[in-house]
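Slack export, channel: ligand-projects

TW: morning all. Re-posting the request from yesterday since it got buried. We need the structure predicted with the small molecule present, not the apo form. The ligand is adenosine-5'-triphosphate; the SMILES is in the block with the sequence. No rush, but it would help planning for next week.
GE: picking it up
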Amino acid sequence: MSEILNVINLSKKYGFFTAVKNVNFVVSSRECVALLGENGAGKTTTMKMIYSAASITDGQIKVDGIDVSKNPATTKRALGIVSQEDLLDGSLTVLENLIAHGICYDIPKKQLKEKCKELLEFVGLSNYANKEITSLSGGMRRRLVLARAMLNDPKLIILDEPTTGLDVQSRHVIWKKLLTLKQQGVALLLTSHYMDEVEKLADKVLIIHQGVVLAEGTPDNLPVQNGYKTLEDTFLGLTGFDEEANDIVQALS
Ligand SMILES: Nc1ncnc2c1ncn2[C@@H]1O[C@H](COP(=O)(O)OP(=O)(O)OP(=O)(O)O)[C@@H](O)[C@H]1O
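GE: finished. pasting the full token output, ligand included:
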């Protein structure tokens, strides 16, 4: 496993408000790291700094050894992004949406079309290639966004709540694809409010509260380390269902 993402002492301020405080973590190839935190914990802000959609207030991010602040265009090319908003173009078909995105990566036209078809096959949407975006279900849209994120053969895919709002079947389909990608060597950075998703996909979990990493470990050893039975209990306990979380936040601030 080689290191793909290195987040070093990362902080983000919006005016006087600190959204992310001194966060450190590494994601390697074939590894999925999950950021687990309540609404407003700072997960999306962290991800946005990685893909240069938000400026870094303090600290450093390296993608494949390259400093994101110094080389945003280069580092972005190594990333696939599944953001909370799918940003699909409703005036284009499914295939056209992929092609339009692929043009940004200077892939030769013929090769691009082939690649788009392969990706539609991978996410099980081949039969929808020429359909309007509006004809897709929520789960299909998320699968298409995943295909779009894979167009540039990314080393790291950033997944901001990739299955929110989907039915159990659609979530399983997406999990299967993500596990396949991981096996193929891709690194994954995930946020999710679903504990089962984190347990299924993540090799390492960071519990974030008010922009601070409270605890870090595997989905199995985090509860053991912190004296809880399940990941959900650990998360609830550390993020405010007991006094201890506030003490840790104060100590780390
Ligand atoms: N552009 C912005 N300007 C000011 N404050 C912001 C901005 N974006 C986010 N914030 C604040 O930063 C904090 C972290 O937000 P962020 O979106 O990172 O949370 P999150 O952990 O991703 O939450 P969710 O689970 O709801 O997606 C929140 O308090 C939010 O209100």
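GE: first-pass observations. The chain has one domain: 3-86+154-252. The pocket of adenosine-5'-triphosphate is lined by residues 14, 19, 37, 39-45 (CB under 6 Å).
TW: perfect, thank you
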